[in-house]
Amino acid sequence: MKIVKFKENIKIKIKKLFFNKNGQATVEFILLIPFLIITCIAVFQLGYVIYLQNNIKQLSNEAARIVSTTNSNESGEKAIKRNNNLYDGLNFDINIEPDLWKARKVGEIVTVGIAINYDGFGGLIKKLFGKSILIYSESSMRMECE
User: Fold this and answer.
1) Any bridge partners for residue 119, and if so which?
2) pLDDT, tens digit (0-9, with 9 covering 90-100), for 75-124
3) Contacts from 5-14 at CB under 8 Å and sequence distance 24+?
4) What is the spatial distance between Cα 78 and Cα 75, in angstroms, rounded to a whole number?
């Protein structure tokens, strides 16, 4: 009788050892978590690039308004650089056309372009793809003063 119970106990323990599904969810989660993390990082990167594009567009609109009402490149560049401290590590390339304030006349169009190269969080985009993302925005406005 004891031998039969011993054999049954061994069979039950072997079945529990090889056919136990208690850890299955944990193993699946561990296998999926890297893909979930990569997906989250990609979504955050994309969201931040869109955020930067909107802010750069707003900066170019504001700089074009300032240049067209004051006829001063310096004032427009100061307005952009005043907001540059919000984006540490990003270098703004500013292009104002026509670039000479003497060449501008009332009623003509002045264009302000801003470009930045974005490398991603911790340079991740540049490390993965070998180059930065160019974010460019341009705004035009009619000159209101000389």
Assistant:
1) none
2) 888 888 887 666 666 778 888 888 776 777 888 888 999 998 888 887 88
3) none
4) 5
* Cα–Cα distance measured from residue 18 to residue 140, given in angstroms and rounded to the nearest whole number: 71
Asked, for residue 17, whether it belongs to a domain, the answer is no
User: Binning pLDDT at 50, 70 and 90, where does residue 136 land?
Assistant: very high
In whole angstroms, give the CA distance from residue 36 to residue 31: 10
In a domain, 13, yes or no: no
CB 83 within 8 A of CB 59: yes
Distance CA 109, CA 126 (A): 36
Structural domain harbouring 46: 24-142
7 occurs within a structural domain = no
Q: What is the pLDDT of residue 10?
A: 75
Total structural domains within the chain: 1
- How far apart (Å, rounded) are the C-alpha atoms in residues 83 and 94? 13
Above pLDDT 70, what percent of the chain? 86
97 occurs within a structural domain: yes
